[in-house]
Design goal:
By secondary structure, the chain is an alpha/beta fold. Helix content is about 50%, strand content about 15%.
Amino acid sequence: MKFCITGSDACGKATQAKILAERLGAALFSFPNYESPTGKAILGNLRGSWEIHRDSNADHHEGCYKVPEVNALVLQALMNANRVESTAALKAAERKGHVVCDRYDVDALVYGALDGLDADWLEMLNDNLPFKPDVYILLDVPVEEGFKRRPQRRDRYEADVKRMEQVRAAYLELFRSRENEGNWRVVDGIGSIDDVSARVWTATGLKVRA
């Protein structure tokens, strides 16, 4: 089976994805993959370094200007390409056994929509990905708890408390809207690592503990 563990920043998803992968003997993938060509471009966007050559009608600084109105569209296109880059590896891992993803496609529906992109367009991009998880698990942690866990923030999304509140609310709304599909599950991310991992295991729906 293929699992995706997601949630807002510092919710514990990387830790829980690693634990689940180890228990299952599964392949573990993290997204975005910052080592790939698109991943490096994505990292540049998140750290605020995207610039293009200016034109005569644009405000500029040292010959360049930032273009926030196209950032969201280009960023999500790159995010999608970043997932596609890993398709061969994901499918090869799937043929061998379980696969666990620390984030994947569902995050585009949250962050892309909050950045003002059309929800139907985001759905279309996701629906056409050649690899799809079987079960989505949301680790829900209050934003204030996330900041306690990781006071130092790494990018423009993480550092914005108001945006992080919106992100958490959007994840919860999305997962609750799809509860009837049976494979979208919300897990309380508060507690010890062992307590949370036990809840994650229950959310996988697997009957025998690995």
